[in-house]
Amino acid sequence: MPPDVKDKATLHILQKSGLSKTPQRLAVLNILMNTVVPVNIKSIRQALESKISINRVTIYRILSLFKQHMIIREITSPGGNNYFELATMKNPVHPHFLCRKCAALSCLEPLTFSQANHWLTPDKDYSIENIEINISGLCASCRNATKLQKRSVKQ
What we know:
Shape: flat
Radius of gyration: 19 Å
Helix content: 40-55%
Order of helices and strands: HHHHEEEEHEH
Number of domains: 2
Low-confidence stretches: 1-5
Structural class: alpha+beta
Number of strands: 5
Strand content: 5-15%
Strand order of the largest sheet: 4-3-5
CATH architecture of the largest domain: Orthogonal Bundle
Number of helices: 6
CATH superfamily of the largest domain: Winged helix-like DNA-binding domain superfamily/Winged helix DNA-binding domain
Mean pLDDT: 83
């Protein structure tokens, strides 16, 4: 997608949410729109370093505001690290996989409505506001490295 189309999409998201279009908000939202996996504060700060002058507190405030306006979702890893991703129709709620060794977080295929429908029926005694499914284990790289280490120890 050409950059000008992404910029228009970013402006549209802020306008639709009723938020003013500050350079900092646009920059943070652009970072989130250009990532394919959830990102943490450190990654956002690194991506913004060469683009705009922005401090850590401002990034937290922007992310909090985006979360309040349901522009983004926050994923908390079992280790307590927070990651952020867009919450759009093109990026529906989906499970995440966290590698317990390298801490890489990746997105898994979204649940279909029929798969989650039994949780959403009105006859339940609860009202669902958020669904989070987080799975942990070893990613392919760490699993292969572990296998190689075991082999070299046996030899």
